[in-house]
Amino acid sequence: MTDTTDMHSHMPLGLAQRGYTGVIQHLAAKEAGSALSDVELESRLIELGFVEGARVEILHEGLVGRDPIAVRVDSTTIAVRRREAMAIIVA
Question: For residue range 43-69, what is the model confidence (pLDDT) as tens digits?
């Protein structure tokens, strides 16, 4: 039963709204639909600090289409497009 609950609590950060807080579970660049290649997107996200176990909080959303989003990753604030945030799986 715990496995089912865990699976339902995981979601892409790109679907979260302002005020969401969670922990990065893993990256899934293939599912993001980004213009960047999977390898390039994953590398960029890791360089920015989006690593497994990091705490994230959505601080702000853009006015047009709620994009981009301002995300606090541990103690750093980063702006990222929602499309790229779809590759960041959180719980």
Answer: 999 999 999 999 999 999 999 888 999
**Rounded mean pLDDT, 33-37:** 81
Six-digit token string for 75: 């103690």
**What sign for the dihedral angle of Cα 45, 41, 43, 91?**
positive
pLDDT value at position 66? 86
pLDDT score, position 32: 80
What does the DSSP assignment read for 11-79?
A: EEGGG--TT-EEEEEEE-GGGS--SS-HHHHHHHHHHHT--TT-EEEEEEE-SSTT-SEEEEETTEEEE
